[in-house]
Structure formats: C-alpha cells, structure tokens
C-alpha cells in the first residue's frame, strides 16, 4: 500500500465525516483540505474585517459570515471562507450556503497559501464571486474583481484605504485591520 497515494472521498462521505469531525475542513474535488489552528493575529484580522463589514451593512439585507460556515459552490467544491457576505437572495442547504457570496475575504496562512491563491481563485472566478480579497498578514490586500468572467487585480498596502468593488461606499483604512 502506498501511503502517498491520493484518496478520493465522495461528497456523501465528506458530509458524513463532517458530522463527527471537529476541525475546519474544506472539500475540493474529492480531496479534504485540512485547516490547522490559526494564529491569534489571523483571528484578529478576521474579526476586524468582519466588524467593519457588519457596521457598514447594518440595516441592509446582507449578512456577514465568518470561518466555520460552509459555502457549497458545487458538489466538488465546498469551502469555508474566513469572511464573506451573503444577501437576501441567498439560499441554504442545512447550515451551508448554496448561493454565491457577494464578497469573500481569505486571510492567507502559510499552510493554505497556494490553495487560497490558486485553487480558490479559480473556483471563485468560475462561480461568479464578484469580489475576492486575499488578505496577506503583512498588511496587503490583493483584490480580485470580476469583469467579463475574469478577475482584474488591484493591490492595497498597509496605510492605504481599501475600496470595495461590490459595495462602492465601503472604505476601510488598512491601519484599522492590521
């Protein structure tokens, strides 16, 4: 038996595993992506972004969700973004969202960097996530905005004011995030 051989897990097997497993996992085309414990700084960044979004969206039909809430893009791609926004037309299957979020923020960690920068970028683009933000813990945000089925890239640095494509009035001073 080859211990390095990839093992394919069906969507149903993944659902059963999730019922008994206490760790953050994501499902990606037959593979389980494990997320180990995050750092205090990672959690601080997630909380700061979520707080800004929650204040901005107060009174709207949109909701901010964080980390442990699953988004099912299709049966082969089930992710738990760090921070995302869903609006009134969102649909659910159990506790998982089945409609595409308006905006996603992923705080990049060493253990998930390539998955967030390559795989998720591709899946989010294919499924029509209008704005995907890769948040680097050094103070940068790489903003990907969907135009004509492809992402265009804008980079914000610590000290800049982030401006959302989806919510044009939303501006965040990155000094308040990092």
Automatic annotation (TrEMBL):
This is Uma2 family endonuclease. One of its GO terms (molecular function) is endonuclease activity. Keywords: Endonuclease, Hydrolase, Nuclease. Pfam families: Uma2. InterPro entries: Nuclease_put_TT1808, Restrct_endonuc-II-like, Uma2. It comes from the Bacteria. Residues 12-174 form the Putative restriction endonuclease domain.
């Amino acid at each position: 038996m080859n211990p390095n051989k990839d093992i394919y897990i069906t969507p149903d097997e993944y659902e059963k595993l999730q019922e008994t497993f206490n760790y953050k996992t994501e499902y990606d085309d037959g593979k389980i992506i494990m997320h180990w414990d995050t750092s205090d700084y990672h959690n601080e960044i997630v909380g700061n972004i979520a707080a800004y979004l929650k204040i901005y969206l107060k009174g709207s039909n949109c909701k901010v969700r964080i980390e442990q809430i699953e988004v099912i893009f299709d049966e082969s791609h089930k992710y738990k973004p760090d921070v995302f926004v869903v609006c009134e037309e969102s649909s659910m299957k159990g506790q998982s969202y089945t409609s595409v979020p308006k905006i996603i923020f992923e705080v990049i960690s060493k253990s998930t960097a390539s998955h967030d920068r390559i795989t998720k970028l591709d899946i989010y683009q294919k499924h029509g996530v209008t704005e995907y933000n890769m948040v680097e813990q050094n103070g940068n945000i790489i903003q990907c905005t969907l135009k004509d089925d492809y992402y265009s890239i804008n980079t914000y640095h610590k000290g800049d004011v982030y401006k959302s494509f989806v919510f044009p009035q939303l501006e965040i001073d990155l000094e308040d995030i990092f």
